[in-house]
Amino acid sequence: MSLWNRHDDESWVPDAWPADSATVERRLRDELLTEIADSPDMRVSGIDDIRTTVDLDGTEITHLLIDATGVKLKMKPAPGATPRPQPDARPEPDVIARTPGMLRFARITADPVNIQGYDVRIDATLHNVAFDWARYATPVRADRPATAFAIADADDPGTPSGAFSVRMRADDLGPMIESVARPLLKESGVRLRRLDTTVTADAEQNVAVDAVAGVRWKIFFATVRAHAEAHVDSDAILTVKTVRLSSRNPLIALALRLMREELREAEGRRIDLNAEAAADGASRTLRVHDLRVRVAQHIEVTGRIG
C-alpha cells in the first residue's frame, strides 16, 4: 500500500513513537502532504509521485529526503470551492509525553518539479534541528488517530542551519500565473483572455511586477494594467511600495477607482514573512536570513535558514 494512501487507512496508529524509520516516514508524509490534498479551494494532482526517505537512529533522524524531481503538479479549483476558513481556535491537546529528538540532515529537492507545465528548481537543506517527539492526550484531528503523535518545537532549538534556492525561467512566470488564475477567475464570471507579465529587480532588492491582462466580464472587454513594487529585506520583511491598477475601459476604470483607497492602504505595509509562516503553523525555531531575489533570464530566490 502506498504510504500516501491514507484515505484507505485513516484509523492507522503508530505502535510506538518514534518506533522505526517506516513508521516515521509514514507519519511525516501524511502530515506534510495532507494540507495540500485537503485544501478547501484547490485540488493538486501529482503529489502521490513525491518521494520521501527517512533514516532513523534511535531518536535521531539522521537523513530525511523529500524528492519531487520529475513530478508534475497540476492545480485547479476544488468543486464548490469556498473561502479558506479561519484557523481553528480550539486549544492544542495536552502533551502527555515528550522525547527529545534531533534532525541531523534534511533535504528538499526538485530538479525540476513541473508546476502547471513549467519547470521550477528547488533545493533546500537543514542541519541539526532539535525537536521533540510529542504524544498528545487526544488526536489533533478526531478523524485521524495518528495525529496524536507529532513532532513539536523543542524548548531549546539548538543551533539549526540551512540554505535554500528556488529558480525558474523569468519568461515562464506569467504563463504559470495565467494557468492558475484563468480557472479561478472563471468561477467568478471573469474570463482571462491573456496575461503578459514582466518582473525586474535591482541591486537594492526592489522587485517590480508589471502586468497587462485582457479580460472579459459579461459583454465587456477590457485591458487592465497593473504595476506593483516592493522592497525585499534580507531578513524576509516585505515592504509594499506601490500598487497601481488602470484601464481605458470607462466602466472597468470606475470599478478600479473604487478600489483606490484600499490599494493606497496597502502601500507602505510591512509583511514579516517569518512571522506569517510561524502564524500558519511553521516552526518558530527556523527563520529565513540573507534573503536574496535576482531576476535576469531566471528568477532566483535564495536564503539561509537558522
Description:
- This protein has 306 residues and is of the alpha+beta class.
- Helices cover 19% and strands 48% of the residues.
- It contains five helices and 15 strands.
- It has helices at 21-37, 170-187, 250-258, 260-266, 273-279; strands spanning 42-45, 51-57, 60-67, 72-77, 95-115, 118-136, 149-153, 161-169, 190-201, 206-217, 220-232, 237-247, 270-272, 288-295, 298-305.
- Strands 1, 2, 3, 4, 5, 6, 7, 8, 14 and 15 form a ten-stranded mixed β-sheet that branches. A five-stranded antiparallel β-sheet has the order 9-10-11-12-13.
- The longest helix has 18 residues, at 170-187.
- The protein is globular, with a radius of gyration of 22 Å.
| Helix share bin | 10-25%
Number of strands: 15
Mean pLDDT: 87
Order of helices and strands, N to C? Answer: HEEEEEEEEHEEEEHHEHEE
End-to-end Cα distance, whole Å, is: 37 Å
Net shape: globular
Main structural class: alpha+beta
Sequence stretches where pLDDT stays below 50 over 5 or more residues: 1-8, 81-89
Strand content: over 45%
If you compute it from the alpha carbons, what radius of gyration comes out, rounded to the nearest whole angstrom?
22 Å
Number of H- or I-type helical stretches: 5
Largest sheet: 10 strands, mixed
